[in-house]
């Protein structure tokens, strides 16, 4: 492979802001695997945000991209899976499988799509120093004849339309809106774009903690919600505390610390069959590898309010943010019923321009 922009390449990133800023190029924020596509004739590589190659996991995409992309180019975009008119991140996670036979089967039953939103090289030209507006124009021309499963991400300079996208597209499983300065060159690995994400709050039971990697202070709090049968299901974690606050939390939660998980709602967390039957912490993952996922059980008696962006099935999609303790709430009151569901929106309408 001999391209003007070569792998590995870290993608350009966005920093969170509270409101959609004016005077930008706006796109939906996709909830999939960020991927940079490098194509040099018959050679094609999918590079992930972390540098881990994704090529072997998406053979159907490799074929489609080889058929539809310009002979020599580098594209930035997102690998997604669509089910029932919505993005399905769980199905996407399943695609990362070590067995080649399983990869081939999943490519048939849960085929992926690629949504392109930036063009970094074309032919012998690097576009990294070219402004965002021009890169967008060249991307649109380069993919003018693209068809399912290769798409060009909808984009607009209309702030009012971007605000409507922010309100409506969540129902199709999208994260929010990304805003890009029109004259911005491509800056690998730098947070020079802006992203606005949805935020909601929920009251959750604090039923465990994981120590911080640096020592005996809180790394994250394990959160639970009760399902309709009254079972406490693990729905995610909240983290991102300052070091003084980590120490305070460890002391504050010490009276709730249990000598073992016996008698805890998640006492069977190490049992693979129990992991398959419900939402428990410490489940194995191909992403976490050999990472220590053990945790300290706490008596599930305290309630905290957390902020979250959206749900992935029956759990928080991303790390939640601690807001405050809720001594006025009983653990039994922390149920899934409090969570808001966005109005459904067909993803086909998003990819068709909204």
Automatic annotation (TrEMBL):
This protein's record includes keyword Membrane: no
Gene Ontology MF terms in the entry: DNA ligase (ATP) activity
ATP-dependent DNA ligase family profile domain location: 11-197
Keyword list, A-Z: Ligase
Reaction it catalyzes: ATP + (deoxyribonucleotide)n-3'-hydroxyl + 5'-phospho-(deoxyribonucleotide)m = (deoxyribonucleotide)n+m + AMP + diphosphate
Record-linked Pfam families: DNA_ligase_A_C (PF04679), DNA_ligase_A_M (PF01068)
Assigned EC number: 6.5.1.1
Gene3D superfamilies cross-referenced by the UniProt entry: DNA ligase/mRNA capping enzyme, Nucleic acid-binding proteins
Signal peptide range: none
EC top class named in words: ligase
Residues of the DNA ligase ATP-dependent C-terminal domain: 217-329
Similarity comment text for this entry: Belongs to the ATP-dependent DNA ligase family.
This protein's name: DNA ligase (ATP)
Species lineage: Bacteria, Bacillati, Actinomycetota, Actinomycetes, Kitasatosporales
């Amino acid at each position: 492979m001999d391209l003007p922009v070569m792998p590995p390449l870290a993608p350009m990133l966005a920093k969170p802001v509270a409101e959609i800023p004016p005077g930008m190029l706006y796109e939906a924020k996709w909830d999939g695997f960020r991927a940079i596509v490098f194509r040099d004739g018959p050679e094609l590589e999918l590079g992930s945000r972390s540098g881990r190659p994704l090529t072997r996991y998406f053979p159907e995409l490799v074929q489609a991209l080889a058929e539809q992309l310009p002979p020599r180019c580098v594209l930035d975009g997102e690998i997604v899976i669509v089910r029932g008119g919505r993005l399905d991140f769980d199905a996407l996670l399943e695609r990362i499988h070590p067995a080649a036979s399983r990869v081939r089967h999943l490519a048939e039953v849960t085929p992926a799509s690629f949504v392109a939103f930036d063009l970094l090289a074309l032919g012998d030209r690097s576009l990294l120093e070219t402004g965002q507006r021009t890169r967008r124009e060249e991307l649109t021309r380069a993919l003018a004849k693209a068809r399912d499963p290769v798409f060009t991400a909808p984009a607009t300079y209309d702030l009012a339309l971007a605000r409507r996208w922010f309100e409506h597209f969540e129902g199709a499983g999208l994260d929010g809106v990304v805003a890009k300065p029109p004259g911005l060159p491509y800056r690998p690995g730098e947070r020079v774009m802006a992203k606005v994400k949805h935020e909601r709050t929920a009251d959750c039971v604090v039923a465990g903690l994981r120590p911080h990697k640096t020592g005996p202070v809180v790394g994250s709090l394990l959160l639970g919600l009760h399902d309709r049968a009254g079972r406490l299901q693990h729905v995610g974690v909240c983290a991102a505390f300052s070091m003084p606050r980590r120490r305070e939390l460890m002391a504050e939660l010490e009276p709730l610390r249990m000598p073992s998980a016996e008698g805890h709602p998640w006492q069977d967390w190490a049992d693979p069959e129990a992991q398959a039957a419900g939402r428990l912490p410490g489940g194995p993952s191909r992403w976490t590898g050999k990472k220590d996922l053990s945790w300290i059980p706490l008596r599930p008696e305290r309630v905290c309010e957390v902020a979250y962006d959206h749900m992935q099935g029956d759990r928080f999609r991303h790390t939640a943010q601690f807001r405050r303790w809720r001594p006025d709430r009983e653990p039994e009151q922390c149920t899934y019923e409090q969570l808001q569901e966005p109005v459904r929106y067909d993803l086909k309408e998003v990819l068709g321009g909204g």
